[in-house]
Amino acid sequence: MTLALHGLGVSRGIAIGAVHLLKRDAPEPTERGLETDEIESEVERLRAAVAAASDQIRSVLTRIPADAPGDIGAFLDAHLMMLNDAAFTGEPVRLIRERACNAEWALALQRDALMRVFSAMEDPYLRTRQDDVRHVVERILRVLSGAAPVAHDKEGENLHGLVIVAEDLTPADTVQLQQAGIAAFAIEHGGPTAHTAILARSLGIPAIVGLPNLRRLLRDGETIVIDGTAGVLIALADEALLRFYRERKRQERRYQTELIQLREAESLTLDGMAIELQANIELTADFASVRRVGARGVGLYRTEFLYMNRTTPPSEEEQFETYVGIFREMDGVPVTIRTVDLGADKLNLSWQRTSASAVNPALGLRGLRLCLHEPELLIAQLRAILRASAFGPLRMMVPMISTLQELRQFMAHLEEVRKELRREECEFDESMPIGGMIEVPAAALCADTFAAALDFLSIGTNDLIQYTMAIDRDNEEVSYLYDPINPGVLRLIDCVLQAGLRHATPVAMCGEMAGDTRYVRLLLAMGLRSFSVHPAALLEVKRVIRRTSLESLASFGARTRLLESCAEVRDLLSELEAL
Asked: Which of 140, 192, 197 is nearest to 170 (CA)?
């Protein structure tokens, strides 16, 4: 009987191949006490293991082809940075000395502490950095345990046409497995913003994540189907089903060829209306993906990663060099930088003065609130952004606005920084546009106020949906309520779009909803004319835009305001799809 397992498709495509169960057999650490005279030798043992783990990653880097996507090396470099970061490897040394415990146990304690920090974060991209912590620690533990190399670590290993099934994969695993010729992979852990998932998309490997206990259900060598588009794994398929998926695979190849041809095409509707289509980025690793899809600008550059994995905040000069580097990498395309959006209770960093914990982090001191509470952080970033504005077309966007008073406080800090730079005779763009993220329901309802005070607005649907529905989107008991097409959410989006029209203030959308092709025509019908999406979604969104006539959508915008249930919205989506 056919077995169908449903996970999360993170890299589209169809693959049919034999299962290769990837086994690691890395032991889970246990605590072992040390005698006083053993402590320093244990510290040296840990340091030697860290050095060996670094050498392994460098070895993988040397085998990456010169024409490979730039994000491949960048993600491996990120793991190297963690291995060389005193905040990451220095703490286990302290634990070994203070607790007189073995290196494995000290490393596990630090791993668990860091993973708790990352798992509490609201931003899905930053939250999945806990995977990187686990991957790096596992690599060190394997060295400490003397475990044999994983099969694909051997250079030249041939896994051509096989489907990898594993508990998890590191970025290094993903690169090596692709070089070994795998057809696809399916893993038990992970999410769409994990480095492994991003690499799978960059490398064109069909992939599914989030399939608990998968290894118990499959056998080495059995033939399975991976549908990375639908997130479905099929085992024990009969010949008729295999024929169906072989045809799907041919269709997918044609579809990808069609998308690639859209790289240089204009983002125009059938009736000639230009729709702004930009990319979201988080890391320098994303630049290659942005160039590959021909994005004409960066609609959201998240700066949070500059503040991660460190014991001191980034200096003004470090931030300035990073922002100017974006223009160099992006060849002068317009860039929108969002000021840092982190929560005070989400970072266990020594430089953080705020120590109060929050019962509900999503409702605590985060985003703009944190920046106003910690003005030194804000001022250093404002100076860096303003200085960078002299080097290219730059816009600045403020996250998590909820009141006009907050915005006025922010603008007062900004004006003070401008005065300082003028006194210093430092060049900057005096007319650099300032915008705000609309992701709090109160801000959406008062969008007229913010549209009048700012140069542009951008709707952050991820948080807007969560706050509107009063749910934690990662809580499985209520996650079913996290629905972009809830009529309440749509009415808040409409409030923002209408306010933008009344004040002639451009409105964009940079949340995940903007990159979901199911909703592109709905958003166009409601009046959205600017999308900022993940690079992997950009060409698909462009394809829908180029197949849509705004004239045919004219009657649908008003109808969305009258809908009372998600079912009614889904019926409307079906009508839009048929146009």
From this structure: 197
Does residue 96 share a domain with residue 47? yes
pLDDT higher for 242 or 158?
242
Please tell me the total count of domains within the chain.
3
Selecting among 195, 446, 495, 503, the annotated active-site residue is 195
Burial grade of 200 (CB within 10 A; 0-12, 13-18, 19 or more): buried
CA dihedral (411, 415, 420, 424) positive or negative: positive
Q: What is the pLDDT of residue 344?
A: 43
The DSSP symbol for 274 reads: B
Quick one: average pLDDT of 73-86? 78
Residue 5 belongs to what H/E stretch? strand 3-6
* Residue 307 contacts residue 351 (beta carbons within 8 Å): no
Q: Is 373 a catalytic residue?
A: no
Domain containing 301 equals 265-552
Instruction: pLDDT band for 263, please (50, 70, 90 cuts).
Output: very high
Say which CATH number the domain at 181 has.
3.50.30.10
Catalytic residue among 101, 371, 495, 510: 510
Cβ proximity of 215 and 191 under 8 Å:
no
As a whole number, mean pLDDT of residues 93-113 equals 92
CB of 563 closer than 8 Å to CB of 572: yes
Identify the burial level of 413 via C-beta atoms within 10 angstroms of its C-beta, where 0-12 means exposed, 13-18 middle and 19 or more buried: middle
Q: Decide if 327 contacts 391 (C-beta within 8 A).
A: yes
Cβ neighbours, 10 Å, residue 570? 13
Q: Are 309 and 85 in contact (CB under 8 A)?
A: yes
Structure confidence at residue 268 as a pLDDT band (50, 70, 90): very high
Identify whether 195 is a catalytic site residue: yes
